[in-house]
Design a protein that fits this description.
There is one protein chain. The chain is 25% helix and 30% strand. The chain has 353 residues and is an alpha+beta fold. It has 2 domains: 155 residues, Immunoglobulin-like (Sandwich), CATH 2.60.40; 188 residues, no CATH class. A hairpin with a 5-residue loop joins β15 and β16. The protein starts with a helix and ends with a helix. Bound molecules: calcium ion (CA) (3 copies).
């Protein structure tokens, strides 16, 4: 967590504390909170107006009872399946000791990194039970309810500029399988992008431009030239300068090994681009230079690093099983934006664990 975020959390906690102290010293507090049932909570809410996904906060709730006689157990129950995983209580065992009127409960909220932006609402029910004896058959005597209202916001809104790539867990199902190796964009959220891992049930979360380089470092697999050359080139996504104007940009020629200032490296009358695209060798007259479609299919969606050359990076488009060179980070961002599929918030919710 960043220093600023700590500070922010601290001030939020302080603000909550001040609010609670004010409530505590309000003259009619005890009366108001415990009048009807002899059992009350304050404040009757757990809320955060601006929580960044993956982060959390703590809030204290004061539970009060009118009858201070005996030891009594208190149960806290979250009614929302989603929020159940976000919320824990401290202490884990809640009870009023004999003679005690007040019980402080710390509500810890920790949102998952893949929490959807927007409002997340539910209730926590606090109820009082006898601590010992015949709990079976004894109903919950008294209860009180706290509203949960947590607003998940985009991290960028609070000036978080050192975002590293994040990993989220995905479901292991056919919907995820169909999206493997693809980039997804959430246009109905903040336009954040995810790369679905080609083999594992995880996705990388790309918040801004700083996240693209770490993704390549983390995910790109090394491949030797012999195998790489067997993956067809995607001629519809050539970028950069083509000095000899043979149709192959200089970067691609350097990766293949053809001459960047000679449109016909082997001088057989057929240009370098023409030979590559028709699966002939640009180096040897009349020699074939076959691609391997099965290999290409197996590597679809992968990010590859050409280890024997200059460490060029490639993306294998999952739709065409053709390779696209990534010349630098800004080019990668362009490629990702070109290939990213939009996903609705509803469907996004279905693929994440
Ligand atoms: Ca060229
Ligand atoms: Ca050439
Ligand atoms: Ca030639």
């Amino acid at each position: 967590m960043k220093k600023e975020t700590y500070l922010l959390s601290f001030f939020i906690a302080l603000a909550i504390l001040i609010a609670m102290v004010n409530i505590y010293f309000a003259p009619d507090f005890q009366k108001k909170e415990t009048d009807a049932s002899g059992f009350g909570i304050s404040p009757p809410y757990v809320q955060s107006e601006s929580l960044v996904a993956g982060e959390g906060f703590s809030q204290r709730i004061r539970v009060l009872r009118g009858d201070t006689g005996r030891k009594q157990k208190v149960v806290a129950r979250v009614d929302s399946q989603e929020l159940l995983d976000w919320i824990s209580f401290k202490p884990e065992e809640l009870f009023f000791a004999e003679g005690e009127r007040t019980l402080w409960v710390t509500v810890n909220v920790k949102s998952p990194v893949n929490a959807l932006n927007g409002e997340h609402q539910g209730y926590v029910y606090f109820a009082i039970l006898p601590a010992e004896g015949n709990t079976s058959g004894v109903g919950i005597n008294l209860g009180a309810r706290a509203d949960i209202d947590i607003n998940i916001i985009d991290g960028r809104e609070i000036g978080d500029d050192t975002i590293t790539e994040k990993v989220i867990q995905l479901n292991n199902d056919t919907m995820v399988d169909k999206l493997r190796g693809r980039f997804l964009i959430r246009p109905y959220s903040k336009g954040e992008i995810y790369y679905i891992h080609p083999n594992l049930d995880i996705a990388y979360y790309l918040v801004d431009e700083n996240d693209f380089r770490p993704l390549l470092d983390e995910v790109a697999r090394g491949i030797d030239d012999n195998l790489l050359m067997k993956i067809p080139l995607d001629e519809t996504h050539f970028f950069g300068i083509d000095t000899d104007e043979d149709g192959l940009p200089d970067d691609i020629e350097m990766s293949i090994g053809t001459e960047i200032e000679n449109p016909d490296t082997d001088g057989d009358g057929f240009g370098d681009y023409e030979e590559i695209m028709s699966e002939f060798s640009p180096f040897q007259v009349d020699e074939v230079f076959e691609t391997d479609k099965i290999l290409a299919e197996n590597l679809a969606g992968e990010l590859l690093l050409q280890v024997e050359n200059k460490g060029q990076l490639w993306y294998i488009d999952p739709s065409s099983a053709k390779r696209i060179m990534i010349s630098d980070v800004s080019n990668f961002i362009d490629i990702v934006k070109t290939f990213a599929l939009g996903i609705s918030e509803d469907n996004f919710g279905k693929i994440v664990k």
